[in-house]
Amino acid sequence: MDRKKTNRKYLWLLPVLVFALTCGCWLFSGTWVIIYQVEDEDISATEHFYKFTVDLTTESVWEDHQDDFDNIEDVAFTFKLINQGGDTAQAQVYVSADSTFSDTTTVKDSAVIILNGLNVPPGDSLNVNMAHYYDLLENFETLRGLVKGGLFTAYAIVPNTLEIEFRDVVVVVTFSAGL
After folding, report:
1. What range does the domain containing 173 cover?
2. Given a cut of 90, is residue 115 above it in pLDDT?
3. How far apart are CA 93 and CA 50, in angstroms?
4. Is 161:47 a contact under the CB 8 Å cutoff?
């Protein structure tokens, strides 16, 4: 058998090898979603705010890929606010790595606002879903950094007396990681 013919026969493998080496990150990575349900009993309420801690480190997907994070692509909160009062309830959501804040002044001074402009008319409710959430979102990079740490606390502040219910909270995190 002719050696030149044999070498040419496998020449088509060279572009495939170059492609695999240069694009290996695409071939050996994936995208995952963590859906973290905050139980109603894990949401504490004081006179002017709700508070809950998100601990992604307990999720199996997080445990499997925590050292491989390339990018946290998206973080979204969905929830329902029910206004039982006689005035429009205006609320904001703040986040922090510190779970010890106990008053609105400390939250506003020390935490970072991520959702603003939550207005619920009296006797009505507001479902914050994925589409509505992005219209209200602020400081995404800070939120992304807290999520990357795996543990953070969210504070929903209602400036007037607490006459709303904060329910059905879900945190959705989409991230990519190398395999």
Report:
1. 30-178
2. yes
3. 9
4. yes
The number of distinct structural domains making up the chain is 1
Q: What digits encode the pLDDT tens for the residues 11-37?
A: 454 454 444 444 444 445 688 888 999
Alpha-carbon distance of 70 to 65, in angstroms, equals: 10
Q: What is the CATH number of the domain that holds 92?
A: 2.60.120
Residue 110 has pLDDT above 90, yes or no: yes
Q: With beta carbons less than 8 A apart as the criterion, state whether 65 and 57 touch.
A: no
Instruction: Identify which of 49, 88, 79, 70 has the alpha carbon closest to the alpha carbon of residue 144.
Output: 70
Strand ranges for 12-111 from DSSP E: 29-37, 44-45, 49-55, 69-83, 89-96
By three-state DSSP, how is residue 10 classified? coil
CA 83, CA 54: separation in Å to the nearest integer?
24
